[in-house]
Amino acid sequence: MLGLMSRACLCLALLFGAGIIPVSAGEDDNFTAHDFLRRGMRKRMRGAYGSAIKDFGNAIQLNDNIPGLYMARGMAYLDRGIRDNRWDTMGRAEEDFDRAVLADVNNGRAYALRGFVRALRNNPRGIADIRQAQSIDASLPPEGFAGLGMYAMDAQVWDQSRSFFNKGLELVAPGFPVRSFIKRKIKEIDILERKRIRTSTTRRQIEIDTTAEQELRALSAQLRDGDPVDREAAAKALGFRGNDGAVAPLIDALQDPDVRVRSQAADSIGKIGSAKSSKVLLPYLTAKDRRFRGVVVRALGDIGSERAKKPLTARLTKEKEKVIRNEIRASLKKIEDAAYNLKLDVEYMLEEFEVELE
Fold first, then answer.
1. What is the Cα–Cα distance from 324 to 332, expressed in whole angstroms?
2. Where do the domains of the chain lie, and which CATH numbers do they carry?
3. In whole numbers, what is the pLDDT of the chain averaged over residues?
């Protein structure tokens, strides 16, 4: 009996192999690239990201010139990475969005998605992508706002970060992984905010009065009331990175009657590096005293806020002093470099992207 079955199986195999009995083709064998794309999109909507990615890959093998194909696969990689915490897929998502941008430089959504992925991968170049997306289409997609929320969060500016995330949440439909991601980030911000408030309250209760705080008050008083030499010395002593508490008295000193004090105040504001200070310095780009004007230009470069980019560029065409023109060029270069080192003026970002704070 076993021998008869073996011979029967052998005969069937020979018949199929010889083509005497046709083999029915699978569904995929007759699929075009567009068929794979459409099926992949349906699978992505159902959350079957791995299978969708496979379909998109098959479509790419058949015809990689179909508009939106790399975008579709990149979004599937992104969705799977967020849902399953598979951050290894983010590099593949970024590569697909790279190709989508190369295929269509006016694809604002591709820029926004790449910006979001870069934010997730701690790559500050994503800011430039999101700005480019907004320049193409003023209506950013939810991923664009989520990316901005990530960058603002990295800068520890919680209120602005929450505003970006809330804006993204308004735009994303239920069921998409990015919605759950945004909600998690908002909760994280709430926790961080509560910790900050508790810490601040504790400090007020025990009335800590550190040596640094005492020195700040003493130098601020000297900056207001001393003679010109003392005022200049106080302005210089206040100028070190991160000394944000000194910004307010130094801003007042920009109105000092002595140009040396004004210049030193501007220089110290630049050394402190608070992004918000650039807004205060901009009106002094047209100051009559060339020394003061030059120091202001240099300080704006030290701060590195993109808020100063357009005013400095405009000033370059009007500035008569060659030395100051060179300073302007150097400051513009510093601002360009700062954009790639996550030195963000979040207030300017909010204005630029027209997001209203709650």
1. 12
2. 30-202 (1.25.40.10), 211-344 (1.25.10.10)
3. 84
